[in-house]
Amino acid sequence: MPSTLLAKPNINNLLSSTAMALCSAFCPRISANFRPKPFSSSPSKPLLSLSFKVFSSQATDASSQDKFSGRVGFLGLGIMGSPMAQNLIKAGCDVIVWNRTKSKCDPLISLGAKYSSSPEEVAANCDVTFAMLADPESAIDVACGKNGAVSGMGPGKGYVDISTVDVATSKLINEHIKARGALFLEAPVSGSKKPAEDGQLIFLTAGDRSLYELVSPLLDILGKSRFYLGEVGNGAAMKLVVNMIMGSMMASFSEGILLSKKVGLDPSVLVEVVSQGAISAPMYSLKGPSMVKSQYPTAFPLKHQQKKLMLTQDLRLALGLAESVSQSTPIAAAANELYKVAKSYGLSDEDFSAVIEALKAKSQDTA
Ligand SMILES: NC(=O)C1=CN([C@@H]2O[C@H](COP(=O)(O)OP(=O)(O)OC[C@H]3O[C@@H](n4cnc5c(N)ncnc54)[C@H](OP(=O)(O)O)[C@@H]3O)[C@@H](O)[C@H]2O)C=CC1
Ligand SMILES: O=CC(=O)O
User: Fold this and answer.
1) Domain of life, per the record (predicted)?
2) Cα of 33 from ligand 1 centre, angstroms
């Protein structure tokens, strides 16, 4: 699986200026607004005085840049889609939005976005259309359903699906888009609400390389790094593997918080200890303090971590992926059971860190 990641802090200046040049090619007003972002991985100890983003090699193709007129469609304005669309608008892009619940378009319209009344209309009016939908079912429906984006696609257009879906769903949407003579890129993201707001997402892309190159300046507005992983399905698979690890990490962290409390330790101190050691993770520092207070402000809804749809997703889909290649994943399977319990307690709309409640309940059952 070819990955074309480059991470070279010492070419920071070059990359930043390249990004600015590319962004201004896409969106004329970007160069005035676009400023290098602070390096986010270790905010307390900045390694570099200037920001750097991780860009893939051969990120651009000047000729394809010239052909792009810069009108961008955005379908799906939920927790992730809204701030992403907002960042594109703020960067000066000409954005047309659509969302099933129309009221979620209003804040973006007031920032300068235009509105179209169906995914088809958005795709017909845009050169590139992004989609950030909840799950495989909605991703298929918005792309391939009645008045779906596919009907508005045609040669010279591109469809970028950022939703987290399974490999089969991504391939299906790709086929429909291709049948219209358009290009397709899957580009699920690693990162949650805050990285979406801060333009610090990580894109896991696969599909048409020329579309990848064309939209790279846009991905660089929305994210801090991007990987091109080859054929359609590889981006979806990478995202599922990442979320499988994340789901298990969160379940393990939850156990630690509860065990520390039971043995008379202060779980807030545990969070601090973890944050300073080799197992430190931004996720623990971000969510740990709220978890200790039994609060789960929703960034990544639990329902998305343990979706129960026609194909299912995230942990469940990752388990399916593992099974398809006979890879044993007992830790993820155990974590998955906990998310199922949490979901059965009505915690679907809470943050996925609410999985700790499933463990609390289990402890009471056995006490
Ligand atoms: N939240 C997070 O931290 C992260 C989420 N993701 C992934 O990003 C995607 C979006 O997540 P997020 O923004 O959190 O989810 P939200 O639930 O906040 O938003 C989901 C979006 O999908 C739309 N939608 C749902 N069902 C349908 C349908 N049947 N037809 C049309 N539109 C529909 C919703 O429309 P409406 O407003 O009308 O309900 C909304 O725009 C998911 O695939 C998720 O797994 C990836 C990384 C992080
Ligand atoms: O899908 C969620 C994430 O944080 O990545």
Assistant:
1) Eukaryota
2) 28
